Each structure stands twice: as C-alpha cells, then as structure tokens.
Amino acid sequence: MTEDRPFALQRREQLMDELRLHGAVRVRDLARLLEVSELTVRRDINALAARGLLTKVHGGATLPTELDSAQAQARRTRTAATPFAIGMVVPSLDYYWPQVVSGARAAAAALGVQLQLRGSSYDQAEDRRQISRLIEAKQVQGLLLAPNLDGDGDGVAEMIDWIGNLPVPTILVERQISSWPPNSRQLEWVRSDHALGLEMAVRHLHEHGHRRIGLVLSKGSPTSAHLAHGWHKACRELGLPDDFVVRAGVALYEPGHRQTIEAILERCRRCGVTALIVHSDPDAISIAQYLSEQGVAIPDDIALVGYDDEVAHLAEPAITAVRPPKARVGRTAVEMMVSRLKEGKRRPPQRVLILPELILRDSSVRRTTSI
To answer: Which of 331, 370, 337, 338 is nearest to 354 (CA)?
Structure first.
C-alpha cells in the first residue's frame, strides 16, 4: 500500500522543524510527537537523508554539517589527500555517552575525517593509558577527551598539565578546568550548560506553585558540581530555600537503596518538600517506584523532575526531565577540532556551552487545579 503523499510531506516538514530546533532527534521521540510508528519515522529519515537534508545516526538523525556544500563536494572528488584522524576517549560506552559519540561520528562522516574511539573509565590512570595508546600510534592529529577531573588535589592539576602538554591539539568534551595553570590558555572545551539546565527545572516547578523543592545528586558524578551551582543560583533568585540537597552515598538502584530513598522521603515530609529534582534518570525512576508502592501520588503529592533524559520516559508516570544536548556536544567537538586543525594558530581558542532542553511529561504538572 502506498503512503498518502501530502501527509508524508507534512510529517517530514515537521520532522525537519524539530531537527532545526534541536540539532538532533531520536526516532522514538519523533514517533510519539508525530503519532506514527517508529518504522514510519525511519522511512522518513531515510528519504530525507537521501536528499542530503539530514545525517542518519544510530537511533535518530542530526543536521548536516554547517560547512558549505562546496567543501563537501571537494571531499567527494579528491583522491590524493589524506583526511584528518581524530582520537576520542570517553569514560563510558553505555549510559549518557553513546549519544555524544553518535553526534561526533555523524560530524566526522559529514566532514570526511576519521574518528578513533577509545572507552576508558572514571579513572585517571585508565584515561592516561587510553590517551597514550592513541598518541603512540601516531595516527591522530587531534584528541577529544573526557578525563576524570574530579577533586581539587595535586592529581587533577597533574592531569591537566599532562593533557596541556600533549603533542596534538586537545578539546575537552563535557569537561572543563577550574584552575588555570600556565598551559591552560590553549585548552578548549565544549560541554552542556548543566547549571542552566538545573535552573530550568527549578523555575518550571516554581511556576507550578512549588515553594519547597529538593535536589538529589547522583553518586560520584562530574555533573553534580554544575547542578549544585545552578540549584543555588535559581533558589536565590526565586527566594526559595536552598538547603535541601542530598548527595546520595549509593546509586538508588543498588542493594540498600530502599533505605536511602526512605530517608530522603522522610526528610521531604519533615521539611514540607513538594517537588524533587533527581540526577540521574535511574535514581529518579527508583524514587518514583518507591512512591508508588507507598501510595504517594505523582505529581499530586510530590512532583518529580529527572536529569539526563536517558530512560525517564519509561517510568510510570513518565518523568519530566532535563535533556542535555549530548549529540550536539559531540558534533560541535568534532567541528571545533577540524576548524582548529585547518586554521592552526590563526583560530583563537574556544570554550563552548550548549543549552539543555526541558522535556515536559506527566510527573511534574498536577492534574488538580490548585497546589
């Protein structure tokens, strides 16, 4: 059976509108938005990709590179030139980082460069090992790195100094340096503006009448410091108390997590908290499940907002979440590196923040007319 062409055109125009707005889209989100099957969305993406209007990535699509079509044509026709090779070291290949990598791969494919990926862990020794492997192979002209920069001790300063003295240009991804050693001037970075994302969540809850909001931060996350900064800033500006911050000692889905959640919710009851912002999604889902077991209604008794938007839509009810622009961060990092490799010292160092998005779902807006 053939597809009704006018409806297909309207749907693809809406798909492109979403792509221009966000820079990247996911098949599952588009299927919900357009009220069609994921198979239909994939067919639309294939059709638009064939016309060069978007770039397919795993699970979705991104915008084509911003570099003009003349450069793309030149890449297709040249035969002798050797493309750039860029190394990328990320701390995880499962949660959060696959979308960053997908964005980087899409940009690399569009720009005709090679991307050599290495998975590390949240450990400086392993970071150095994987970075050194790429350097020693002498096959990369630049590096995109997400090293472990937690803490304020000598180890972090040594890591920053070591990265600053690598023999190839380096761009930090979802990281930045807080200290300023002599070689830091040339260190570049691109990351999500997590502090602003947290502010967006606080202001959303405030607009819906919540005046006592709590923040639950994930165990051992590099994002926590940025979220705490945004939290205190938003609360001060709105005149809200900012003393309810929980730094979970364990992940809220590990053994023993129920006691931790129970303690958090008991504190909510004592302090009159009516809304919680939780980093990250799995922890938010665990809290939602516990609340349901206790007969606490979401969002009527307590509202929830998650941070990361990896699996927040799977909860019941689906959880409102702040979505960092992960694919756009990866894409921008590659584009920055290619620009740096082409322009050299003529190009001034760049440090880029990209805004997150607040995805509204059923967990944060009460169904009743009053708070």
So the answer is: 331
In 10 A of CB 293, how many CB atoms? 9
Q: pLDDT tens, 105-149?
A: 999 988 999 999 999 988 899 999 999 999 999 889 999 999 998
SS3 128: helix
Query: 66 pLDDT exceeds 70?
Result: no
Distance CA 14, CA 127 (A): 42
Residue 248: helix, strand or coil by DSSP?
coil
Distance from the first to the final alpha carbon of the chain: 50
Residue with tokens 């202001």: 203
Tokens linked to 116: 């050599």
* pTM for this model (two decimals): 0.79
Per-position DSSP letters for 273-336, written without gaps between them:
--EEEEESHHHHHHHHHHHHHTT--TTTT-EEEEES-SSGGGSSSPPEEEE--HHHHHHHHHHH
Two tokens at 150? 């937690």
Distance CA 299, CA 226 (A): 26
pLDDT band at 58 (very low <50, low <70, confident <90, very high): confident
Question: Which residue type occupies 310?
Answer: E
H helix count then E strand count, the chain: 12, 15
Query: Could you tell me if 256 and 250 are in contact, meaning their C-beta atoms sit under 8 angstroms apart?
Result: yes
Whole-angstrom CA distances from 70 to 49, 63, 73, 74, 150 are 18, 17, 5, 6, 43
* Cβ proximity of 197 and 230 under 8 Å: yes
d(CA 100, CA 90): 9
Q: Prior bond to 339 cis, omega within 30?
A: no
Q: Please give the Cα distance from 154 to 49 (Å, whole number).
A: 49
